[in-house]
């Protein structure tokens, strides 16, 4: 990379453990979270069969 060249990188956040990190290669999506190693780091946690009242308490 020469002087004056700009690279725009977005910070990533694991939706499972909350860990934030910068990707090693901008423009690529990592396979798993570097902290918790979850392959579902980009998918929110969903609970099947839990009522809305209970979901809001947790």
- Poorly predicted spans: none
Mean pLDDT: 84
Largest sheet: 2 strands, antiparallel
- What is the overall silhouette? elongated
Rg calculated over all Cα atoms: 16 Å
Secondary-structure element string: EEH
Protein architecture, described:
It is a single chain. The N and C termini lie far apart (47 Å). The protein has one domain (1-58). A hairpin with a 6-residue loop joins strand 1 and strand 2. It contains one helix and two strands, in the order E-E-H. The mean pLDDT is 84. Strands 1-2 form a two-stranded antiparallel ribbon. Helices cover 10% and strands 7% of the residues. The longest helix is centred in the last third of the chain and has 6 residues, at 52-57. By secondary structure, the protein is low in regular secondary structure.
In short:
With 58 residues, the protein is largely without helices or strands. It has one helix spanning 52-57, and strands at 12-13, 20-21.
What features would you highlight for this structure?
58 residues, little secondary structure, two-stranded antiparallel sheet
Secondary-structure blueprint:
Elements: E1 12-13, E2 20-21, H1 52-57
Antiparallel strand pairs: 1-2
């Amino acid at each position: 990379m020469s002087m004056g060249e700009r690279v725009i990188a977005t910070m990533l956040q694991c939706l499972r453990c909350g860990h934030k990190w910068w990707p090693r290669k901008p423009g690529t999506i990592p396979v798993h979270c570097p902290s918790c190693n979850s392959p579902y780091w980009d998918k929110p946690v969903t609970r099947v069969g839990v009522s809305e009242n209970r979901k809001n308490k947790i």
